[in-house]
Design brief:
CATH class: Alpha Beta
Largest sheet: 9 strands, mixed
Strand content: 25-35%
Structural class: alpha/beta
Number of strands: 11
Distance between the termini: 12 Å
Number of domains: 1
Shape: globular
CATH architecture: 3-Layer(aba) Sandwich
Number of helices: 6
Helix content: 10-25%
CATH topology: Rossmann fold
Length: about 210
């Protein structure tokens, strides 16, 4: 059974993430301690809230360097929702504020007030939406084209490199990265722990890495 550490930095729906991982076959530790991250076989960074507050909390707890060291070790890493956005260096949510981890190139943008057709866009983007494949990876190959996952977000990641986008989604005519992947790093904008059977299948695929 894989030992998974869920990073507790004060901003995440930790209970539901931990339960979903356990149902998928993991032995889960939820901890704010950097040394727990160092011992994990796989690391999960969830997140709900504001980019600036989260980036600041990671640094204050010393977890930012622990996450970077873990990823550099080649072990499997999964970011969820805000945990995806924090992989980027900056967000429109925190202009001039504390930077993200800067592990992926690009930035985090806010959904516009209106879509390309001029119709008002309801923000945040909440609910079930379909995802489509951008690039084949061990996780994205488990996802059927047009499969539904559950989203809750007002900001979305815009990677500079197209190949980083393993799954994409469209909301109000705005196409955005639904899952980023590079090497041992995976991160979803949607919530697998809230996406029922399909979400658990994705977590199981992560644990098999």
């Amino acid at each position: 059974m894989k030992r998974v550490t869920v990073v507790d930095y004060g901003m995440g729906n930790l209970g539901s993430v931990a339960k979903a991982l356990e149902r998928s076959g993991a032995r889960v530790t939820v901890s704010p301690a950097p040394e727990e991250a160092a011992r994990a076989e796989a690391l999960v960074l969830p997140g709900v809230g504001a980019f600036g507050d989260a980036a600041r909390a990671l640094r204050e707890r010393g977890v930012d360097e622990a996450v970077k060291d873990f990823i550099a070790s080649g072990r499997p890493f999964l970011g969820i929702c805000l945990g995806l956005q924090l992989l980027f260096p900056e967000s429109e949510e925190a202009p001039g504020g504390p930077p993200g981890l800067g592990l992926l190139e690009g930035r985090v943008r806010r959904f516009p007030e209106a879509g390309p057709d001029g119709r008002r866009l309801k923000v945040p983007h909440i609910g079930w939406n379909q995802v489509w494949k951008g690039r084949e990876t061990p996780l994205s190959r488990r996802v059927a084209e047009g499969q539904y996952f559950y989203f809750v977000h007002s900001y979305y990641a815009a990677p500079e490199e197209e190949e980083v986008t393993a799954l994409w989604c469209e909301y109000g005519g705005v196409r955005f990265c639904a899952m980023a992947a590079r090497g041992n790093v995976y991160a979803t904008q949607f919530h697998p722990e809230k996406s029922q059977r399909e979400g658990l299948a994705l977590l199981s695929a992560f644990l098999e890495l």
